[in-house]
Design goal:
The complex is a heterodimer. Chain A has no helices and nine strands. By secondary structure, chain A is mainly β. The N and C termini of chain A lie far apart (37 Å). Classes of the chains: A mainly beta, B mainly beta.
């Protein structure tokens, strides 16, 4: 699975959109981009995934560049409960043989 | 649905002691996983089981054994605990063969080895 690079930490004001970047320049054509988050040492929680097209669900939006070498997770209206570590993961089989977690981005939502 | 449950929540061991961490899921998933998370780090895969009766090593299997007891349960055993195994242990499950294999995680077991 391709490696990912994320900033170690970010701040965002409550109510604003939080944009979390991820670089995955060595991604292969059949690898998906996944986002998970971990709130205060709880078990990680799946957020969203995508292959080529932009994706949106009730939690977030995922924007993948046309060359697929980077992506951005967008939380449209961040709340204090969105403070967490966010992990960007690239995987060919969705983690069927396990997910590879980096250190992620610690997102802090400021009141 | 309880999802993925883990027992115990906390455990303190002395070096050389053994113990088994238990994990169960009620989502009828085929695949189950054990990860460990050290302070300030991401999760690392210890072992996984793609289906009942099969297990495979992950990134950091040394010092651990696993048993896929049935479809619901996947246990992790430390035969002779070492301080380097102080960590938070997470169990996860997913539906193998599903379109995107979303993994569901348990709440974790916090293990300290003195």
């Amino acid at each position: 699975d391709a490696k990912t690079t994320q900033p170690p930490s970010m701040d965002c004001a409550e109510g604003r959109a939080a944009n979390l970047p991820c670089n995955h320049s060595t991604i292969s054509g059949n690898e998906y981009v996944y986002w998970y988050r971990q709130i205060h040492s709880q078990g990680p929680q799946y957020i969203i995934h995508g292959l080529k097209n932009n994706e949106t669900n009730e939690m977030a939006s995922l924007i993948i560049t046309e060359d697929r070498k980077s992506s951005t997770l967008i939380l449209p209206h961040a709340t204090l409960r969105d403070t967490a570590v966010y992990y960007c993961i690239v995987s060919r089989r969705g983690g069927a043989d396990g997910l590879t977690f980096g250190k992620g981005t610690h997102l802090i939502i400021q009141p | 649905n309880a999802g993925v449950t883990q027992t115990p929540k906390f455990q303190v061991l002395k070096t050389g002691q053994s113990m088994t961490l238990q994990c169960a899921q009620d989502m009828n998933h085929n695949s189950m996983y054990w990860y460990r998370q050290d302070p300030g780090m991401g999760l690392r895969l210890i072992y996984y089981s793609a289906s009942e009766g099969t297990t495979d090593k992950g990134e950091v299997p040394n010092g651990y054994n696993v048993s896929r007891l049935n479809k619901r349960e996947f246990s992790l055993r430390l035969e002779s605990a070492a301080p380097s195994q102080t960590s938070v242990y997470f169990c996860a499950s997913s539906e193998h063969g599903a379109r995107y294999n979303e993994q569901f995680f348990g709440p974790g077991t916090r293990l300290t080895v003195l």
